[in-house]
Design a protein that fits this description.
With 174 residues, the chain is mainly beta. Helices cover 0% and strands 58% of the residues. The strands form four sheets. Strands 5, 6, 7, 9 and 11 form a five-stranded antiparallel β-sheet that branches.
């Protein structure tokens, strides 16, 4: 947080009884997270000694979490019936707030068939700017052409909004 200007108006000020005055500060924020501002005011009048009052407020800054995915990569190629096939997808949080409960869903399509052996674990928290690989393992059961697609979902950890990226198709393996 960088102070650009303020307070406006500059003090000290005289206020008539029963009146109020607003002050404005202009700041620049780089990055994301929680911003907490504390102000302290000192004043006196004819009947009372010096009085000091403090006030604190906060706000969340930064772009919300956002998920982006790479192309899904399937291997090996060639694939034989009974062999294990890996489908790998990289997910990146391009926002400035963590994404939570990030998980992927992969589907097999085109010709052939394969059974899902292992799914990637749910990523409890994906930090702003961080990436992670999601890997699915399948066992090829029939056919000669396999292709996958994957979609990733999650939640913005700050505001709870739903996040989705994809679908991302894979290369075809034979």
């Amino acid at each position: 947080l960088e102070l650009i200007d303020g307070p406006v108006p500059a003090g000290p000020l005289r206020l008539a009884a029963g009146t109020m005055r607003s002050f404005t500060w202009t700041c620049s924020v780089a990055g994301g997270g929680r911003i907490t501002l504390t102000s302290t005011w000192t004043g006196a009048d004819i009947c009372r000694p010096v009085i000091t009052v403090s006030s604190t407020c906060g706000a969340d800054a930064g772009l919300p979490a956002a998920l982006a995915v790479s192309n899904l990569t399937a291997a090996p190629d060639p694939v034989c019936i009974g062999s294990l096939v890996m489908a790998v997808l990289t997910v990146t949080n391009t926002g400035q707030v963590a994404a939570s409960n990030v998980m992927g869903t992969a589907n097999l399509f085109v010709e052939g068939s394969a059974s899902l052996a292992v799914s990637p674990a749910v990523i409890a928290s994906l930090a702003a700017g961080a990436s992670a690989n999601l890997t699915w393992t399948y066992s090829a059961t029939a056919g000669t052409r396999l292709k996958f697609t994957a979609t990733v979902t999650g939640t913005d950890s700050r505001n709870g909004s739903a996040l989705t990226a994809g679908p991302s198709p894979s290369n075809t393996i034979t």
